[in-house]
Amino acid sequence: MNNYNVVIAGAGQAGVQTAISLHQAGYTGSIALLSAEDTEPYERPPLSKSYLAGDDDLNAILFRTPGYWDESPVTLRTAARVVAVDAEAHTVTTSQGEAIGYGYLVWAAGGTARTLPIPGHDLRGVLSIRDLQDANELRSILGTAQRAVIIGGGYVGLEAAAAFRGRGIATTIIEAQDRLLARTTSPVISDFFAQVHRANGVDIILNGGVSEILGNHGHVTAVRLADRTQLEADLVIVGIGLVPNVDPIAGAGGNVDNGVVVDAYCRTDLPDIFAVGDVARHPNIYSDGESVRLESVQNAIEQAKLVADYIRGEARPYEVVPWFWSNQYDARLKTVGLLTGYDELVVRGNPSKPGFTVVYLRAGQVIALDCVNTPVDFAHGRVLIERGVSASAEALADTSRPLKTLVAELLAA
Question: Which of 326, 359, 363 is nearest to 345 (CA)?
């Protein structure tokens, strides 16, 4: 049995960053990076953006240049998904049946795309965009696809819709709730992106339920809604969220609840096991007392760095302001902070076109900003959140005063 000082289960952003952070900081222990896939580790966000659009090839989205891992002190094991954890024996078992021993285990296994339990969900042409195989299959279809239906009005679905329209594919989005992005942002941002997509020719159906996906000779031909409306489609994207990969941790007796539950140091309740990235549900000082599971590159990177520091003997709690981004057509959204429990919002600028910011407050304190093509507001708004600054709605709405000036005044008060 091979034994390593650190075993990292998962080679997405969080897993790769943990390995690289350990190595770059001079960690001399042995490190194994276990990937469920059979390719070198790659970035996932471009799968629904530049890679899907054909602007990038595989080499462009690899975390490191081809062959890097062969020269690295980190042992990369591909096609080695962890299927079981023995916390007492400090071993994991891979999908290849191999037992691997660890001193520390970093669970960075991410999640899998949520599926629709309806007839026709397994037809050819019905896809998610979670991994490289999904994206490659989708790219092979795009050249001939004429009509696409996207089930789910979240960021991945909207980014896919933008890519499809860029190729001239007729596209419909079906969202079960009464607005797009209902789980992640305010009606102001939801309405803006609905307007942007409609202006680019996307049909949007809200409060829409899907009852069946129809096919012919094993390939999708249409989507049937709960009201019996039938939409022709030769391509269907299911973008209804992620199911965190928690089963091996749960099987080892670990605490799981919409993810692997960790403390402020990303430690699970199992000895010498951490969880980071999309799969980790953690306490966050910016979430109004709630534990959260964040699916973002920034969160994955910061948690990975924190765990690498802990393993090296430099423990510190997770206290980083979360941020996210999404690019759709010429709209560049950057969000900083968490909207949890906001009771007031202020719009800076004209929300009918790119170049505006929405500021969210809770009991008068700035807790988050949605910045649409306003990167300067993003940078200065982050300071307001980090400092826990309170501000009046009137002052925040006054676009004659740059946010930079307002921040300086508020901090000096």
Answer: 359
